[in-house]
Amino acid sequence: MSEKMIFTNGRGDSIELGQQSPYLLQMIEGLGGNEVEIQTQKAPFQDGSSYIDSLLDERELNFELMILVESPSELFERRRELLNIFNPKLGKGSLQYLYPAGTKELEVVVSQPPIFPDGSGNQGLKYQKVIFSLLSPSPFWTDESTESKPLVAWLGALKFPLSFPTEMGTRGDSGILSNTGDVACPVEIEIKGYTKNPMIKNKTTGQFIKVNREIGYEEILQISTAFGKKKADIIRSDGSIENAFNWINLNSVFWNLAVGENEIEYTSESGENDSIVNVTWKNQYVGV
Questions:
Q1: Radius of gyration over every alpha carbon of the chain, rounded to an integer in angstroms
Q2: Which residues lie below 8 Å from residue 192, measured CB to CB, with a gap of 6+?
Q3: What tens digit of pLDDT does each residue of 190-199 get?
Q4: In 9-81, where do the E strands start and end?
Q5: 21 DSSP 8-state letter
Q6: I need a labelling partner for 9 at 20 to 30 A (CA). Which of 19, 89, 251, 267 fits?
Q7: For residues 135 and 154, what is the distance between their CA atoms, to the nearest angstrom?
């Protein structure tokens, strides 16, 4: 399998760039490691400084490709197609990178629309060199699909193989969720059916999220721990949404999955037999 890129813009239009015409991908910069900002602090009379954290900058991807066509008229059609799809006014899009080890994704915006250099070697009757750039606000590549793993009950008999989603029927259900990426990653938690004061705890980090209220039989509690996208919503049977942030326990932390294995525990004051718990996440990588 050769390398190729699939870009989908905010309008839903997609284009494939690979190792064949009409869009021959010649160069990609920005796949691997990223620029790092080292945060330190310095006290009076201190030699050197004290390390605080390392933060990754936004990811910039630079592309060079060659348009290869059969006629001059098709060349200008392909130029027009690139400008139409890589339109920066369409906002956020997605980029898929397909390579021999799998597929990774980024959320991106167009930072430099296609440029068509002239001159010998760059342009002819049936070929055209193209340069453009994409910017990913997040530096992390993610897997193509989300990971899902049902929690396994401590008590009671379970039949194997497990089907998903799995209904947990005893108090104190837990399971191991594995983050195989390079950094901690956010999760999405969904609880369907009746429960009272549910708590989902990452026992590996000691952090928990607790909602101090009842969730009805036909309601769904949805929680997201993503930075800048944190939410806690209750979806009612009629489709209306109630913001549940006011019901979050004050000691709660919108936790992430640490790298490696995480033991996740679900408890509630009542309703374990009537609720279904689903935790999903995407592994994140510092480069490919």
A1: 24
A2: 165, 220, 275, 276, 278
A3: 988 888 898 9
A4: 14-17, 23-29, 36-41, 50-56, 59-68
A5: T
A6: 19
A7: 46
